[in-house]
Fold this sequence. Notes:
This is F-box domain-containing protein. The protein contains 11 helices and 13 strands. By secondary structure, it is α/β, with parallel strands linked by helices. The protein folds into 3 domains: 1-47; 48-228, no CATH class; 243-249 and 258-365, no CATH class. The strands form 2 sheets. Strands 1, 2, 3, 4, 5, 6, 7, 8, 9 and 10 form a 10-stranded mixed beta sheet that branches. Strands 11-12-13 form a 3-stranded antiparallel beta sheet, with no helix packed on it. Helix 2 packs antiparallel against helix 3. It is globular and about 60 Å long. The chain starts with 5 loop residues before the first helix and ends with a helix.
Amino acid sequence: MDLLPYDLVDHLVQFLPRNDLETITNVACGRPELSNWQLMAEQHLEERYLLDIRIFVQDQNEPKSTAKRMKLEEGEEIDDKNEEIQVYVEKHRFTGELVGPWDFKKLQYASLRDVSISFHPWNVSKKHRPWERQKLLSILSLPVATRTDSSTRSSLSVSSGYHWIPDSRDSRFAELALKMIQVVQKTFAKVDIRMTSNGTNLRIEDFIQDYVDQGTFVEHMRFSCGGFEKQRIFQKGIVSLFKERRRTPLTVQIPDNFLTHHNIQQILEHWKNSDGFVASHKDVSQWKDGSGDFVVGQLRKATVGLSFNVWQCINDNHQAFYVHPRANSRLKIQESRYDLYTMSVVPNDPETVKDWNLNLLFGAE
């Protein structure tokens, strides 16, 4: 590796997180044979920056009157040429400092921190500018900042606000969103997908499912999309969360009326056949007083929002516990808000363990 040319080292360093770059600079310091590595690592540490991207799809034919809206509801078509992508991109340093609008320079040092795709044209500000679709897709394919790169969790959100336009138009909005989210890397920490019933299709379902299965960095997911084949995505996605461990904790919020009593029983069956997802005593002992340090990869957490149609599972205290037959853990269902229930894996007697921060462990929102 010490004999690699400058250009190749530059290419390789682009894929390394910041903590690896810091290691390289320390190891290569004072070693002439690693001068290329030291030079490029220091350059990337200094030059890298974060991008926050706000994307709005603006419909130039948006009706201003109730009469026009009623005509659209009856099936009037809207010309695709009037659909305009408005984008505003902010540049931030890794310290969190806002630099200002992105100047499109030094693209090789850019990472995505926050991507927001919205179909609310009335939110477009004067800062937003029209972008060509292909140019936008190339920017969305940039690497995503990881937790080791930034203290702020990266996020991806998609929101559709059109409830009165024809199905054909709403579906085209969904298609455009799908093209955007399909090019992004599945390494965002937070994912929020909210689409109308008209705009939902199976490929958006598949995207969410892929994130559940493959998004090893995702920590929080929320999806509210009308028109889902709910049993299909439930069986493939939500139930699988309780089958085996994950590298990182995961919180999932799902739409109302998504879970039934039968589905909760499915979760319980899968969880009972698992190892219980509780860290061993050795792992727990690595906690430090008040610091919150722990081995995330050894602790399995899954929190699922439940709706009122599963009230029969809740006892008089608005909570229920299902004890694991082999592990020292239990599956806990508890009311966290007036309209939301959470399901999480907890130790049987957490109060007997010293220095546990339960909110941090079990995901108080």
